[in-house]
Amino acid sequence: MTNEQLNQAEFELQTKNSSWQFKRDPYQILQHVWYGPKTGMDMSYLQEWHDTGFSGQISDAGNDRTYSLDTRMQEIPVEGTGDYRINSLAIRHADGSIASDLRFKSADHQAKQPLKGLPHSFSESENLNITLMDETSQLEVVLHYSTFEECDVIARSMTITNKGDQPVFIETADSASLDFGLQDLEMIHFYGRHNMEREYQCVPVTNGITEISSKRTSSSHQHNPAVIFKNPTTTETSGNCWGIMLMYSGSFAIRTEKDQHNQIRVSAGINPDTFEWKLEPGQSFQTPEAIFSFSNQGLSRLSKNFHQFIRDHVMRSPLAKKNKPVLLNNWEATYFTFTKEKLLEIAKSAAEMGIDLFVLDDGWFGKRDSDMEGLGDWDVNKEKIGDLGELIDGIKKLGMQFGLWIEPEMVSEDSDLYRNHPDWVIQMPNRSPIRNRYQLVLDFSNPEVVDYIYEKISAILRAHDISYVKWDMNRSLSDLYTKTLPADRQKEMAHRYVLGVYDLANRLTEEFPEILFEACSGGGGRFDAGMLYYMPQIWTSDDTDAKERTKIQFGTSFFYPVSSMGAHVSAVPNHQTGRITSLQTRATAAMAGTFGYELDPTSFDQEEKDLIKEQIAHFHDIQNTILNGEYDRLSHPYKDSYSAWQFNDGKRVIVHGIRYEKRPNSLRQPIELRNLNEDQMYKETKSGMVFSGKALMNGGILLPGELGDNYPFEFIFEALPEKNNQN
Ligand code: GLA
Asked: Which of 23, 274, 436, 705 could form a disulfide with 475 if both were Cys (CB 3.0 to 4.6 A apart)?
């Protein structure tokens, strides 16, 4: 077949290495055609359907029993069209009927518009907007697509507008839908719990429906709002894979169905279990964005696509790409028990070791000596720490910046805020609310509450020289109800809460762009692209155990860049596991992120202090490669007896890792490096040995053979100037 004979797809979104195709069918319904490598042709020749019993026809198809939306691939599958599979849009009309019949109206290209009140990706390129209409109800749906050429990403969101004269109820409005057709796929997803986030799991997609979701009004420790589909033969370095990530921090659902013909469909968005939205005539609703990426070079490339996309098109903080200060946080050092003197003593020791930023965690405000009290009272506890300005001056005199912890969404029953505004907490009528970590949640769906908290927090930030803020969120929401909405709008509350969080985050980060904000939710319970839009780093987990962290950071790395992962060295025995690992092991694990310490250095002997000093100086030296280089996973810590990873900035390649267990009388294990220049020569800085890129990628390097479990290692390679290269 010559090129001229190849048909063009009717609609095609292209990035460097991917193509997304769809077209109108004879009934003006949008048919999904292809998402995969660029092929240079219309891929709809693959679509052929036959009469399938018990799969009905839309009325315009007359007696054509081969036309059923129950079997066809669709760009946006809708409830009430005779498609019994999972749908991405369900609209209940004023008369109670649930149906929409979306037909193509128009397509246009326009500059990408910001999503109002929601985090969103930014791009210079134009959006493709496809307008669809349900004539009966006058419901208009616009699909917005943006392409990100270099990182092979396509973003999609949807705007629903009620152009009729009756209110409608949106029961489901998913951001993403993707029909894969007939393919053998596996799904990688990241489940977990507090202290054990983003555990890797790879499962075959089987017939029936699988759901990865959260109903906690946060993206949650339990599931991350991101999944990967891959062919069974796809590896880190070869094969096809597709990633779907939601840019949303609230309850979500990613549903996957393998249908009667073994076709696979994915639909992802706000969790419909805890969502509904009443749309009055003339009103619009816009979904959060879904981010898709495709790689035909395995998982490593897919992760790099997401890392680059998040850093270039999601993180809007001017500090996102700057080197991050090495911080010391007092939480695991003191918990709630500290005085101004104790803090300054820790700070002095920290400064001597080279720490850049001292962070005062929970317990500095209200009356807060335990987690049972004080939340919501955002006034400095002068009895405990004296004048905040003086404390900050003391820290600054030591040559460090100062940072503060806040948990703006929460309130303790034992607090002045609760005593003055009991009506501001989330609670169902005539029922006692569920407590979680002894605390209740403020109703952030109520703008009055958000305004109050904004005033309190911004006043502190305005009054003091604060360089860093850790924004925590330490419980899941329950009792979803708000006094501000009528009965038929209560299911809007969870999404409105998230919009309230975004509103506060937006106001604070816009007003204080020079402050480095770190998101947190009992560690990594709200680790998502929505939060990364406002805050360029997130505390990855409350679990600071080095060995556990290698797994948590491994799972996190599939979607999120190293520069977004908060990672600290803490004391041993570790407070979460009791495990004892060396200071060097802990530092190696923590250097795969925004590096810091979370311990009391005053209890350390001189040798330990000197080692920490060396570690900090070393991190300062290599942080540019770590935070701004390309990241690669070199092992599978669930299968291998070691964990290894690589940072590469083109000039310097760093391999870090931890060998978990020493077996007696065993040969040293080789590990292969990845994504180097094959013909480049690299010099390993400690041994002085020179290797070719080919050797490092195909033969690898030998792991250390020393005795001891959880043994850390580091190899640093410098790319040699061209004259030293052989080929
Ligand atoms: C959460 C955070 C911790 C610490 C405590 C304070 O658990 O993840 O890092 O800030 O709250 O209460």
From this structure: 436
Please determine, for residue 255, whether its predicted confidence score (pLDDT) is greater than 90: yes
d(CA 329, CA 404): 9
pLDDT digits (tens, 9 = 90+) for 298-326: 999 999 999 999 999 999 999 999 999 99
Count of Cβ atoms closer than 10 Å to residue 318 Cβ: 11
Q: How far, in Å, CA of 225 to CA of 253, rounded?
A: 8
Q: By percentage, how much of the chain surpasses pLDDT 90?
A: 97
User: Is 528 one of the annotated active-site residues of the chain?
Assistant: yes
Nearest-Å Rg of the Cα atoms of the chain is 27
State the closest ligand 1 atom to the C-alpha of 520, by its place in the atom list counted from 1.
Answer: 8
What's the CA gap between 646 and 629, in Å, rounded?
9
Task: Report the candidate in 564, 401, 395, 387 with the shortest Cα–Cα distance to residue 467.
Answer: 401
Q: Are 644 and 702 in contact (CB under 8 A)?
A: no
Q: Of these residues, 42, 379, 608, 649, which one is catalytic?
A: 608
Q: Is 361 in the pocket of ligand 1 (CB under 6 A)?
A: yes
Q: Which atom of ligand 1 is nearest to the CA of 470?
A: 10
Q: Where does the pLDDT of residue 123 fall: very low under 50, low under 70, confident under 90, or very high at 90 and above?
A: confident
pLDDT digits (tens, 9 = 90+) for 108-118: 999 999 999 99
Which residues are CB-neighbours of 492 under 8 A, at least 6 positions away? 275, 276, 277, 278, 445, 485
User: What is the overall mean pLDDT for the chain?
Assistant: 97
Regarding the beta carbon of 520 and ligand 1, being less than 6 Å apart is answered yes
Q: How many CB atoms lie within 10 A of CB 407?
A: 21
Q: How many CB atoms lie within 10 A of CB 604?
A: 17
> Which of 327, 328, 474 for a ligand 1 pocket mutation test, highest count of atoms within 8 Å of Cβ?
474
Residue whose Cα lies nearest atom 2 of ligand 1: it is 522
From the candidates 528, 545, 598, 632, give the one annotated as an active-site residue.
528
How buried is residue 198: exposed, middle or buried, by Cβ count under 10 Å (0-12/13-18/19+)?
A: buried
Residue to substitute in 193, 407, 472 for testing ligand 1 pocket (most ligand atoms within 8 angstroms of CB): 472
Output the CA 362–ligand 1 centroid distance in Å.
7
Q: Is the pLDDT of residue 4 over 90?
A: no
Task: Quote the pLDDT of residue 6.
Answer: 56
| 67-84 pLDDT, tens digit each | 999 999 999 999 999 999
